[in-house]
Amino acid sequence: MSEHYTLRQLNLLVREAIEETLPDEYWVEAELSECRENSGHCYMELIEKDEHSNTPVARASAKCWRQTWQMTKPYFERTTGQLLRAGMKVLVKVYAQFHEAYGFSWIISDIDPTYTLGDMARKRQEIIRQLKEEGIFDLQRELRIPTFAKRIAVISAQNAAGYGDFCRQLEDNDYSFRFEVTLFPAVMQGEQVEQSVINALNSIYERIHDYDVVCILRGGGATADLSGFDTLALAENVAQFPLPIITGIGHDRDESILDMVANTKVKTPTAAAALLIDNLLRILERLDDASQRISNAVNQRISSQKIKIASMTSLIPTLTLRMVGDQRHRIDTIGNRLPIAIERRLTNQKHLLESLSIKLQGFDPQLLLSRGYSITLKDGRAVRDPKQLKPGDEIETRLEKGNITSIVK
Fold it and tell me: Which helix (H) or strand (E) holds 264?
């Protein structure tokens, strides 16, 4: 125990040992569990997870000093279209550094963006595959933007420049179209994008009948920070939403998964506004065209009827004379036939009267009496049944040559 070291002396020994045994730089695959900037430097926590259990099996701190970070960060963002963030797979070149006052750390000298691009592409393809297996990848494209889409639900950051541009474009359109825009504020940058946009969609769904279409807009943020639009949960919510969704996220790289599953994608919020204006303009043009065709058809019909009326008017005198002549001939014919018809009718009626007179003579009671028949009367009425009489009744019997009065016994 006679020999001992100060802590600084011991740490210097460690430093010398590390510098002698690990003198080179190494490319290392890892996942970022933390990534933060401070004073121009970037501080990262690297982890490696077990493939089966997803449990961390290795962990280390890493630093990228200001001079290196100012060169690697812009290159990484331009190449990948993403910000370095927690959960991202990276390939970094590091060398070991041990400082007697600050301890051990891996110092990052370079970052390979192509490795991260490959990992991102793999994750994107896995999400797309899963969406297609679920049968929802193309659901939004089966919807149609309504003919008169004027009630717009917008998901965007409240103070985003893109949202302001969108509203101004709709308000100042050249055709005096009037739109009703309702904002559902959401975080459009960073790790909160997914849940924030899903919450906004849920709020819109509660008032689903108040809107014709949904616009998801982003503008004014960092052009590289678009990772939140490449998640499975957000894609599932958008793909199955019952209203058509238009995306105007504002980027020039390959489309995000959100763009892929949306009904319509445009590059910018102003392009989304132009699309809605053009939709109404097409309807206006169709209405104007229909109105013109109806007007032409009516005018053509009126002209045709005028010609027809003029033609008929010219024929009226001729037709009138012809009709008068026909009626006059008919009257003359009837006049000639009338005396003959009257004479015939009178003769027929005379014969009918004579026939009836002969028949009436056959029913004359006097004729019956002359044949030996008699008629018994009581109180001037003919007696048809002996039961009509009772003893003491006075009856009269009428014969051909006189009457007999009798008393019934």
Answer: strand 264-266
Domain boundaries, the chain: 7-121, 134-281, 337-362, 374-407
CB 93 within 8 A of CB 109: yes
Number of H helices, E strands in the chain: 9, 14
pLDDT band for position 317 (cuts 50, 70, 90): confident
Q: Residue 253 pLDDT more than 60?
A: no
DSSP string, 91-113: EEEEEEEEETTTEEEEEEEEE-H
Residue reference for tokens 């790289």: 253
What is the per-residue pLDDT across 327-336, written as a single tens digit (0 to 9) for each?
Answer: 888 888 888 8
Sequence-ordered alpha helix ranges (H) in 243-268: 257-261
Residue 11 has pLDDT above 70, yes or no: yes
Q: Is the separation of the CB atoms in 194 and 227 below 8 Å? A: no
Report d(CA 132, CA 112) in Å as an integer: 31
The yes-or-no verdict on residue 386 having pLDDT over 90 is: no
pTM of the model: 0.61
Look at the domain 7-121 and name its fold.
OB fold (Dihydrolipoamide Acetyltransferase, E2P) (2.40.50)
Q: Is 72 helix (H, G, I), strand (E, B) or coil?
A: helix
Structure tokens at 1: 């125990």
Q: Are 224 and 187 contacting, i.e. CB atoms less than 8 angstroms apart? A: no
Helices 193-205 and 232-239 pack at an angle, to 10 degrees, of 20
Q: In what order do the strands lie in the sheet with 180-185?
A: 180-185, 151-156, 213-217, 245-248, 264-266
One-letter identity of residue 41:
H
Q: What six digits make up the tokens of 373?
A: 């028949």
Name the CATH superfamily for 134-281.
Answer: Hypothetical protein af1403; domain 2 (3.40.50.10550)
Residue 221 tokens, joined: 């943020």
Residue 208 has pLDDT above 90, yes or no: yes
Nearest partner of 143 among 266, 284, 240, judged by Cα? 240
Nearest CA to 231 out of 276, 198, 275, 269 is that of 198
Number of residues that make up the chain:
409
162, 217 Cβ separation under 8 angstroms: yes
